[in-house]
Structures are given as structure tokens and as C-alpha cells.
């Protein structure tokens, strides 16, 4: 994927997608869920119950982060604070992911507890990573940069994933003198190392350029600023209407990503087949994420979001009738066409709406809506699966969330980049609300 048309800051920012996507595929989607499901099965936990417990764990994790997001984001708007918060959550994520190696495979409950810490670190770092988008590029380039980041992430994730699959398969066939448990744990270690090494460019070259100058009693001042935002929330109508739509449709996207392997396992698809399917999904998703960015420049980001949501509605319907491994292949390829694009364009669409000096605060709200959505989806799947005794019914229930999100998105106005930039230059956000004085430093901030 050519990077010569991007600045050093843009490329360094995008490489964090390359770095953290190893976690997304190996821990969130593929190896860890299968490792956990196997541990739960050995402990006598039924397939439906273990899937439900995973859903409940994801819900608890996202609730914690959703509560912290706007508060930490408001504090991080102060000069020099954004990278500090990013580094904290990054460190938690790396350390807890590496620590999965130490948990005995039969301790399924301990696995879920440590998984909670890995998810907090991973998702927490993304709050501040996403907010860095306004620091490293212009509004005109955001769709392309954000989508290219997702595309780079899919390509990057395939390398550690392929290595991990190879180790696990070779262990299963006794070609390597390793147990499947040890092979899976090596995958967790590979994830932590990959994530850490390729995050170095961001730490070196990406800096906070838009910020609010520090005030006395920084925490108290942050709560005061957050209160002012909530007080004038009606003035941010377009922004919060988009967040409401995002709340529903991203719920379904995140739930399908995080619970896909558990769902496939319940259908009787072998672990080896699931890993291969997920690998191919990553490969296919990369060019489609970039394609979404390019098409958004031609047809607008909002129209491409419509396309992505519509495809996910088809996914939910098809999942209900899924029976064979071939069906799961078709389902996975449908997801691959849109999962990166819909996430990338949501990020850039929102970044165009927010006032730059308060980007962290507003990305905190972006996190709240996205994470609260991630509570509803897994709970919906978990409860439906337990009540019906059928995981397919749980996935089908997600169609309601996509339909609601699609309807709400229709009422969100198109972003007007030039108007937004002009407003930001005058310390006024696009909705017309006067905001605290912000400093824009065109030099790198140490």
C-alpha cells in the first residue's frame, strides 16, 4: 500500500492501525474466543452459556470505558495531556495482553477477567488515537486518511495472524512439538510484541497541535467544561444526532466482530476453518476499506455509510439461515466488504463535525455512544441465544439496530468541510457555540 502521498504525521498515525489490528483479530475476534470457548467447554459450561458470558464480559468492559471516556477526554484536551492518556491505556493493553500467557487454560473465569483489562487498554487507547486525527491532517483528507488507516490495519493484522495460525495448525497436526494451548499462548505474546513495536512511529512523530491551555485545578476545570458542553448540547444538534445514529449501527458492527468466532463455533465449524476464514476476511477487507474512502470522496461519506449499513442488514438476515461452513464463508466475505469502511468513515465523519480544540472531549462522547452500543448488542445476542437456545436468533436480532441507525442517519446533515474549518479558525464550532480559547501550535509539541 503506497504511503508516499501521505505526510510523516499521517503515515505514523496510520501505522497505529497496523499495530493494534493484531489485537483486533487475534484477541477480539479469533484466537482468544476459541481458546476461551475450549476452556469453558472443558469446565462443563454449555456452548450457549459460554457465548453469553463472553457477551456479558464485553458489556461490562465497555460500560466502564464509556463512563470514563468524556471525563478523561475533557482533561486530555489540555496541552500535552492527549499523548499521556494514550500512553497509559496503551501500556495497560500491552501488559495485560502479554499476561494472558500466564493464565492456566482451564481457568476460564480468570481468562475473562484479564480479557477485560486487555479490552480496556485497547479501546481506551483508541479514544485518544481517533482524536489525533484532527492533529495530523486536514478535513479534506480525513476520509482518505482514516480509510487508509483501516486498510493498513487489515494488511498489518494478517502477518501476525498468519504466523499465529501456522503455529496453531502445526501444533494441532503434531508437526511442532507444542500443545495447542502453548501455541495459542504464543499467539497472545506475538500480538503484544507486534502492537508495541509498530506503535513507535506514533509516539515519535504524532503530537497534539490543538489544545486548551492548562488552568488551575485541572480536574475541576475539566468537569466545568464538560458541564458547559452538556448545557449547550442542543446547539450541537447535527453532531449528537449523528452520534445517536452511530450508537445503533456501530452496535451491530462491533457485536458481529467480537462474537463471530463464538457464533461459528456454536454452529459446529472447526477452529481451523474459522481461523482460515478470518484470515481471508482480513485480506479482503483491506482493499474494500480503501475503496470506501475513495468512493466517499466521490459520493460523500454519508452515502457510503448507507451502503455499509445496508450490507450489514443483509448479513443479519443471512446469518439466521446459516447452516454450513460455506454459508459462513459467504457471510464473512459480506462482512469483509464493509466492516473497515463503515468504521473508517464514521471516524472521519465525526472528526469533521467536532470543534478541533475540544476534540478529545467530543471523542469521549463518541466513545460513550460507541461503547454503550457495545453493551446493548452483546447483551441482546446473549439473552436471545439463551432464551431461544439458538445463536442464530441472537445474530438476527441485531437487524433492528441497523435499521434504527439507518433511519436516524437520514436526518443528519452532510458535513460542510469549508464551513467547519472557517468556524474552527475563529474559535467557534460549526454550530455557533463560543468555546474556550484554544491554541494551535504548528510546531511539534514536546
Automatic annotation (TrEMBL):
PROSITE patterns: MFS (PS50850)
UniProt topology in membrane: Multi-pass membrane protein
Molecular function in Gene Ontology: transmembrane transporter activity
TM region positions: 21-41, 53-73, 85-103, 109-129, 150-170, 182-203, 238-263, 269-292, 304-322, 328-350, 362-381, 393-412
GO cellular component labels: plasma membrane
Protein's name according to its UniProt entry: MFS transporter, UMF1 family
InterPro entries recorded: Atg22-like, ATG22/LtaA_families, MFS_dom, MFS_trans_sf
SUPFAM superfamilies in alphabetical order: MFS general substrate transporter
Residue intervals of the Major facilitator superfamily (MFS) profile domain: 238-446
Subcellular location: Cell membrane
Keywords in alphabetical order: Membrane, Transmembrane, Transmembrane helix, Transport
KW Lipid biosynthesis (keyword) present: no
Organism in which the protein naturally occurs: Fictibacillus solisalsi
Acyltransferase recorded as keyword: no
